[in-house]
What we know:
The chain is mostly beta strands. It has helices spanning 95-106, 185-194, 200-203; strands at residues 12-14, 19-20, 42-57, 61-67, 70-76, 85-87, 125-129, 134-154, 161-177.
Amino acid sequence: MRGMAGRACTAGLVIGVLVTGLTGCTGDAGGDGEAEACTDGTYAWSDVRREQRLTALSDPIRFEKRTGSYTSRLKPLGDTVYRPSVTGTPEGVGAAGVIKALGRHLKAEEPLAGPSETERPAQDHFFESSTGSHEGAYYAWAAIDLVDADFTHTCGDGEPTKGHVRTWEGTGAGFLSCSMPSDETAGRIAAQRTCPAGSKAAEDA
Length: 205
């Protein structure tokens, strides 16, 4: 869901190992005994975890009469600034290369957030709905889809490099009637916090 256009989110746990990438190394030709720098190699991924985190929430929304369109202000929850990070970056690869390799492993439809990207709280974050006739109680929220993964990078017969990646697949927002439970983690938390007690969304949260 990177950007307000949205991206499908999958919550859950994925555990496994898959080898991806090309094998090959480019050596440091200086002959001074320095370790070879790997520009390509194989990745073994493990403990891949996806987490959807609620980042902004609207006040409780109530429509006393049918309303065709609505704009909801989403208030940031906290002041956390998200930045992609890679530890144990292989020689000659760089953080961007590791993140791209993780995207290939996940078969991501869009590139994962790269090293230069940030996601920070926005005081002017709004969600607009202009279709349908709204009536009754509604809830609105924003979220980020985080990804964490451990990796082992191997190049030729050199010593494997172990590291960790933290990035995200996207950000997005949702708007639903309190009679409709959300199928997203962040949506369920939003319903629990803002929908009336006894509503279907709050009960199923």
